Amino acid sequence: MSVSGILKVIELGVMVILNNTNIVWCSNTSTVAKNLILQLLDSGNLVLREAMDDNPEHFLCQSFEYLSDTTLPSTKFGLNYVTGREIYLSPWRTNEDPSPGNFTFHLDPTGYPQVIIKRGNLSRTGPWNGIRLSKAFPTYRYELFMSKNGT
Fold first, then answer.
1. 111 in the same domain as 72
2. Which long-range contacts (CB under 8 A, 24 or more apart) does 69-74 make?
3. Domain housing 48
4. Are residues 115 and 60 in the same domain?
5. pLDDT tens profile 68-98
6. How far, rounded to the nearest angstrom, does the alpha carbon of residue 88 sit from its chain's CA centroid?
């Protein structure tokens, strides 16, 4: 079964995904923009930005901040210390239902950084041991980078 939807930018620069007439996702951006550009970057990041803003990293909304069950090489997740926003993996409930599923995958930066899978109670996969996330998935290559300026 295929899933379809409509990506739409509505007033004030808010990006929404519609399924028929129902909003199933909203960017909730609070910045007012006059001349919007929706752009798919070479990295795979779909960004919404103000056309007159010369800063190429200043986005009103970007898909890399709303992860489901997939990441790309330049995807970051964890806590952004500048915005206070946590970026984490949140898979769909089913292939036909894009609402959040039962599990979420977080990077906890307090103490020794560790990956946490949440479903009601916390289940930890292990802290960062200086080389990799211990007890994490050995087929994936993780890099840990922490910066107070959000980059």
1. yes
2. 72/43, 72/44, 72/45, 73/43, 74/43, 74/44, 74/45
3. 1-65
4. no
5. 877 777 788 888 777 788 888 888 888 877 7
6. 6
Per-residue model confidence as pLDDT tens digits over 106-118: 888 777 777 788 8
Structure-token pair, residue 119: 């479903």
Residue 7 corresponds to which tokens in the numbers above? 């990506």
- Under 8 Å between Cβ of 91 and 78: no
Q: Which segments of the chain have a pLDDT < 70?
A: 1-3, 11-13, 28-33, 56, 120-122, 124, 126-128, 130-143, 150-151
89 in the same domain as 60? no
Of 38, 65, 92, the one marking the end of a domain is 65
- What token pair was written down for 131? 């080389």
Residues 60 and 79 in one domain: no
